[in-house]
Design goal:
By secondary structure, this protein is mostly beta strands. It folds into 2 domains: about 70 residues, SH3 type barrels, CATH 2.30.30.40; about 110 residues, Sandwich (Jelly Rolls), CATH 2.60.120. The chain is built from 1 helix and 16 strands. The strands form 4 sheets. It has a 5-stranded antiparallel sheet, with no helix packed on it. Strands 8-10-15-12-13 form a 5-stranded mixed sheet, with no helix packed on it. A hairpin with an 8-residue loop joins strand 2 and strand 3. The radius of gyration is 23 Å and the shape is elongated.
Amino acid sequence: MTPALLVRALMVLLLLTEMAQAQSTPQSALVYVTSQSSLRMRGGPSTEASVIAELDPGALLRNLGCVEAPEPWCQIQSLDGARAGWVAAEYLAPFAGADPAALSSPAVPATELRNLDLRPGLIYGTLAAGGILDLVTSTPADEAVTLTLEAPGNIALAAFVRPATLLARGDAGTPVTLVMPEGGDLLIRLADRSGAGGDWQLLFTFD
């Protein structure tokens, strides 16, 4: 092989190695543990680093960033922020659902926003995989509004007094009644918890 061909072959090999490494570390903001048994969270990106905690299979975590060398490792954090450390990237996979905190706080940004004229009746739509839909409206004072969500089980609902006070959370098929004595701005949020998305219908009734 001539020197030029050898250099070209080495460049191709380096490129393929970099591509394989890039695919070995999850790039999503949320990841889950894929190991069949508990996974050790360590104080640094090495098997020599001290063990901080044992993570259960399927545990959902925040991904703070990954390194490729000398081996792929990711810095992760528990959803409540109480623990952070490093785990081997090969035991993590991207999580396609919405951030679970979206159903507790509207500080998590929505992927879609719609202004809604609140009235009795039915609205419907399709929630994208991992989607977060915010329906923004206002309610009259001392009016009880009942929301009934018909959707796959992976889609859930939360209602907030804007800007950030949680009123209620609910699952598909379970009516949620809201009462705002002084009326005001209301944010109704739908979030896909698994990454499956799906069609939804939301029924509004007034008492």
